[in-house]
């Protein structure tokens, strides 16, 4: 159950949301909160992807350079950084959820569209005196005392880069690496419709900090355990194409047979979505607790974020997800019903 929030009504010195993106008043208030804080607690969504973890770590580097005490974490029961992201600098700054402040004076959340997506840290966020929500998901209604939300940018990393610039701090190579990983993963290596001219301009600024983009690409996309090929084969063997929808699933037993952790199967959706005859792709992945984590992709004609939001999740029009505790068949029946009305 979602913890009860403190009073999150707009403050007299600034609105919670303003237009499409943060207003100058929003940015000003964020700078004031950061400037006056001695300790800042940072959290990103559970099962963090490159944008969530990269944005949080870039912020942590910056705040530490300002002399702030920083606690950074994510609320997974099995607290572990996904293998694909273990090359990121700054992982030593992460703390397990148990070490997170119970009632932070100032907390910042990254890339989390809802309070529930903070997992074990949702209660801490609800009890925070000030909660700054930094995000770019269109489904984010703003659940903090201050929202730095802009659904028009390609990644949360874009907003973090602006925050760092407004704080007057340099973009070091470590910060640039974290931000670039956030940008390149959320744009699908600049293939998604969310990619804007501003995204390419930001990438150029980050690369100028001395990044080896070939090495980053190899870590993110060109390395997988042999067991991944076996699990991918099982998923492809049971793939279904029906009425513009292509879908498959990966069970816990599929992964266990090859010692493959859950985060290793994230890339299967990118194989399935290539199906020429399908507008929408779906992959159901059974996690270690027996729930189905459902990833969806659209080529543009269908807003999968609307579908996933109706099913308890969220995301972007072209890439979204939700969690299901039903069977594969029941989950797909619910998805098809929403797809028919989309």
Explained architecture:
The chain is about 35% helix and about 15% strand. With about 350 residues, the chain is α/β, with parallel strands linked by helices. It has two domains: about 25-220, inorganic pyrophosphatase (n-terminal core) (Alpha-Beta Complex), CATH 3.90.1640; about 225-340, Diaminopimelate Epimerase, Chain A, domain 1 (Roll), CATH 3.10.310. The strands form two sheets. A six-stranded mixed beta sheet has the order 6-7-8-9-11-10, sandwiched between helices. Strands 2-1-3-4-5 form a five-stranded parallel beta sheet. Helix 2 (about 50-65) links the parallel strand 1 (about 40-45) and strand 2 (about 70-75). It is globular. It starts with about 25 loop residues before the first helix and ends with a helix.
Strand content: 15-25%
End-to-end CA span: 29 Å
State the low-pLDDT regions, or none. Answer: 1-19
According to CATH, the homologous superfamily of the largest domain is: inorganic pyrophosphatase (n-terminal core)
Number of helices: 12
Order of helices and strands: HEHEEHEEHHHHHEEHHEEHEEH
- Broad structural category: alpha/beta
How many β-strands, per DSSP? 11
- Based on the coordinates given, report the CATH architecture of the largest domain: Alpha-Beta Complex
Q: Could you tell me the radius of gyration in angstroms?
A: 20 Å
Instruction: Tell me the CATH topology of the largest domain.
Output: inorganic pyrophosphatase (n-terminal core)
Number of separate structural domains: 2
Mean of pLDDT: 92
